[in-house]
Amino acid sequence: MSTKGLAGSVRVNSLDQESTSAMESHELRLDYSGQLRSIEPQNEALFYRPYGNDLSISESYKKHVEGARRNTSASKLLRHAFVQFPTSIEITPQTQEMMLREAVAFINKTHGGRAVFHARIDRDERGKHGVDVFFAPRYEKRTAKDVTDWISLTKFGKEGARERLGQKQEEKYNKKTKEWEPQFKTDGSPKMVWQDSAHFQGQVLQDEWFEHLRDVVGLDWVLRGEKKVGRDPDRLEPEEYKLKQEREKLAQDKLRFEAEKAEEAARLSETVEWVERSVKNLSASIDRVQDGTYDTALSPADMPDQPKRFEVLKEAAPDKRPTLGFRARFWGLNFADGRGPAPLPAKIRAALTKAFDRVASWASELREARQEAERASRAATEAATAFLEATEEEAAQILTDAHEEGDRLASVDVRLQTYATRHEVLLDAMKSNLNPDDFERAMTSARKNWAADPRNPDAEKPTSNSPALGS
Q: Rounded to two decimals, what is the model's pTM?
């Protein structure tokens, strides 16, 4: 019966300082394989970090082992377990939290209760049923003198295997007879050995994980994964063992070749994808220059759904002032989330960088030209304004002069009218005091003079109908 999707598993290995650093890089998605696996980067991992939410694996380990003793000659510092849940479990936020919680509980339960210091379930990968658990079993060691805490990577695994599997009679391979022979003590009794090697520890751990899924998690449909066949090379005949080794080597070489081929194909695909992205951003930069938005400043309001990316962009921008043009360039050559430069070959990166530099130079030239045009436009506007103002002042002066001239002419007209009125009064007085002959003789000479007098309105119009003096 197939156990696909219905069984879980646990894989455990020990880590030294170098492999721990590699695990940290993978957790931060700084390594190549981590970047390839991260297909949904918006889904952040879930963590169990009892010593602090901001602590790395190494920092959590230091907190965990503080005050405890360990075998200083041992090169391995801690253990890493990949706890796989049955893939038939539906993925929801609740089930993933359950998986993280139960994986931590299981490793603690099988390793003395004080083992786990860091755990993580990645949610950006295709597979979402595995939990990475980092642990270093801590226990109290009691002597007649005192009680001290110790760190042991193998103590609880060996104890669990011995408790569950016990002992068996030792066997050794006889090269002469080509037989596996049971071993005896000098007294003739069977020579017994504990079944506590790494193989047996792993077998017991798989049994315990199956039981935990069934009895604690409550998966009544869960199955125990298939046990390995031919666990150790000493269980095979020499010829069979040699043939098995050769086959395994060929299989490993094939797998390595296929893996390298797939990795190279993935790297090439990623390179092509980045080149296309960079060229697209380069085209966008050119469009920004042409429509005059290359230097448009960006603010958090322009990237409301990407606050972290805006902060990365701001830190990288000159004077911490990101613009539309700078964003196109930065995202064309770097990871937007600040992980570093894009995985581009050196020659391609150099060519793209040179192209972006040319666009930036072009934008700078156009910027200066626009500024010069704006300055010229302002100067022309100022000159035109000054000319209009001067013209308006001149027109106002002319109008003022005209008003003054009009006032003067009006005054002359008033004086003329006053003179005419006085003339009429004088004539009336003369007519009243002189006899007609005397009045006529007096006025004959006056009429001649008045006809040519410039004060007379009709002096230039002898044919006028205005009444003459004495008429």
A: 0.50
